[in-house]
Amino acid sequence: MFERLDTPRLILDSARLTRNADRMRARCADLGVILRPHLKTAKSANVARIAAGGERGPITVSTLAEAEYFAAAGWRDILYSTAIAPGKLARAHRIQHETGARLLFVVDDHDAAALIGQTAAALDARFGVLIEVDCGEHRSGVEPASPALLKVADAIASAAPYLELMGIMSHAGHSYAFAESEPVRALAEIERFAAVSSADYLRERGYPCPIVSIGSTPTVLFAGHLEGVTEVRAGIYLFHDLAQLSRGVCTQEDIAVSVLATVIGHQRNGPSLILDAGALALSKDVGANRFLPEAGYGLVCDAVTLEPLGSLAVTVVHQEHGNVPVPDDSWFARLPIGSLVRILPNHACLTCAAYTSYDVLQAGEIIAKWPRTGGW
Amino acid sequence: MFERLDTPRLILDSARLTRNADRMRARCADLGVILRPHLKTAKSANVARIAAGGERGPITVSTLAEAEYFAAAGWRDILYSTAIAPGKLARAHRIQHETGARLLFVVDDHDAAALIGQTAAALDARFGVLIEVDCGEHRSGVEPASPALLKVADAIASAAPYLELMGIMSHAGHSYAFAESEPVRALAEIERFAAVSSADYLRERGYPCPIVSIGSTPTVLFAGHLEGVTEVRAGIYLFHDLAQLSRGVCTQEDIAVSVLATVIGHQRNGPSLILDAGALALSKDVGANRFLPEAGYGLVCDAVTLEPLGSLAVTVVHQEHGNVPVPDDSWFARLPIGSLVRILPNHACLTCAAYTSYDVLQAGEIIAKWPRTGGW
């Protein structure tokens, strides 16, 4: 089914993608929250439409390049979830102006809010803003329900009408430190509480905060309830990967992306197979190895069935070479030079970033090539 | 000097590049060998011309996308140094046919040589071939000066006129296991001897082997002599990086590429700076950390002078966030939100791969944007 494809190549299983998307939409309906899928993983309009069941709903992005791409493709409600640098506002303004999309920014510092407000005023631009609160990961965000939070809200309010405070966001990135559902469920509650208590804190002080946004795939899937939350951000659930598998977030049959590679060498001193998928084709992310040490840089699977080939994994990567130790020489006959394999990635966000398109697999055939955006 | 640039952005210092290029050409002249620069790092025609002092000389590439790009830009002698998969010959043939370039392939297996010969015959295509010998890294290559080597040569000869045996190549990738020059010099001699003895072995059996190709930046720079070698492949010397610095291969002033990033947050719980350069902008390669553990995901430098800022480094990366611990809060005043820094990369080959162009810095000004190719 892959005869005419050059390798390495990024394969997207359309049935798995649709199932993952449907499952998350059902989950969000059960939880009573809006799904604002994070498209930093997929970076694809085709995937974004499937995520929303065919619609162009609210989305999350991580770069202005993604914002530009989705706005040009007709999306209108775009949360840029990386803290915005003042120097990026002119481009953001242009995106809004040219497409009619509305961008939502994230701020977590009162000086930054003031600076962004001044820049927006100088541009005569209007932006919605969420305040990020830190629910324990300490990557970014202010202390929840604190005077520091209020100071940021006041700074945003002072920049009216150029900035409009739309609510609160939090992100429990530290949920990836666990491989069991119980601590993740606890973190989901911490993430929820940080956001909801912060929104309530600001509402009591006169700021309405219509949006209360939380999320990561694990916390959304394992949360007990999401009372007070209005929307969730999750992205990796669309594709899943070995990092999610290793944390019990998905099964192997949920992983929708894989790298098609060719056996280009048999190293008898080893013995090992050499693949034409190395550090660039797979990325050097080994995030699955914490809880799945045998994952290496990716598990090697049958090209057709995507069933793992024994416990073969890419254990060493060079720029364009992937080295796969095999138990014995019999694997050389089983996988002669020129044969194809597929590799399940550690971290789909990083692996996919090396490719400009997906080869879409449906019912055993490549039916389409979907472009993806990249860069900044 | 960077006011109008969005970040993250890849900056290439033209004076450093030219100095690195000149130094390697002088070194190769001293050694009496042809320089066939490996352009898997730079992937840029502008850089390739500087590498050859303005000419279009022989080059090395790691993907057919690079071969296609350089052939279209007028290069004629292109070594594709990753073992070729039979499925890639049709495209290689098309590149030769459409551009007049000559591609040289690498083979290390007699069955693969036979298969490639059959495929070339079916296409009525002509390709030059080098046999790769394994000088100890055990990534790829046959045993030097061995019956196995002869078997590969015979298989290539049997595929005449479609394949033409042009010689031998070896690559001492394990030279990166050392941070002192003495073991690297020893490996350079092992690499040289593996290639030269293999060429002699085949010449005694009637195969002329006009090309004897070795190389990596460290072995070319540290080799005592290269008697019998006709050409060297090296690539990272054009840019250098923290991995080279950590191994004593270059000084900090030789590193010609850096990532321009913006401070987008101040995390008081730390304390740390948050940059808009994370796993995608820097890559997750931490190859410098073996001998320079403080390198993290990259050293943080003054944006203008490229002098290190204390010992600041990016220690945690998320997709679009880089976290830089600072000793105390005084750094927040020194680097307010919105300020620029530059980051020296661990491994230039992987960092550059995320970008589609270089912003070229000369005498304190950005003077050009040079495109780079990517993908496969």
List the keywords:
homodimer; 376 residues; alpha/beta; TIM Barrel; Lyase, Ornithine Decarboxylase, Chain A, domain 1; 2 domains; 10-stranded mixed beta sheet; 8-stranded parallel beta sheet; 12 helices; 18 strands
What is the chains' assembly state? homodimer
Q: What's the mean pLDDT score of chain A?
A: 96
Q: Strand-residue fraction of chain A?
A: 15-25%
CATH topology of the largest domain in chain A: TIM Barrel
Estimate percent helicity of chain A: 25-40%
Largest sheet of chain A: 10 strands, mixed
CA radius of gyration of chain A: 22 Å
**In CATH terms, what is the architecture of the largest domain in chain A?**
Alpha-Beta Barrel
The named CATH superfamily of the largest domain in chain A: Alanine racemase
Distance between the termini of chain A: 34 Å
Question: What's the number of structural domains of chain A?
Answer: 2
Helical stretch tally of chain A: 12
Please write the CATH class name of the largest domain in chain A: Alpha Beta
Structural class of chain A: alpha/beta
Overall shape of chain A: elongated
Secondary structure: number of strands of chain A: 18
3D structure, described in words:
2 copies of one chain form a homodimer. In chain A, strands 1, 10, 11, 12, 13, 14, 15, 16, 17 and 18 form a 10-stranded mixed sheet that branches. Chain A has an 8-stranded parallel sheet with strand order 2-9-8-7-6-5-4-3. In chain A, α3 (64-72) packs parallel to α4 and α5 (110-123) runs parallel beside α6. Chain A is an alpha/beta fold. The first copy, chain A, contains 12 helices and 18 strands. Chain A is 32% helix and 24% strand. The first copy, chain A, starts with 8 loop residues before the first strand and ends in a 5-residue tail after the last strand. The first copy, chain A, is elongated. The first copy, chain A, has 2 domains: 16-238, Alpha-Beta Barrel (TIM Barrel); 250-371, Beta Barrel (Lyase, Ornithine Decarboxylase, Chain A, domain 1), CATH 2.40.37. The model of chain A has no long low-confidence stretch (mean pLDDT 96). Chains A and B meet through α5, β10 and α10 of A and α5, β10 and α10 of B.
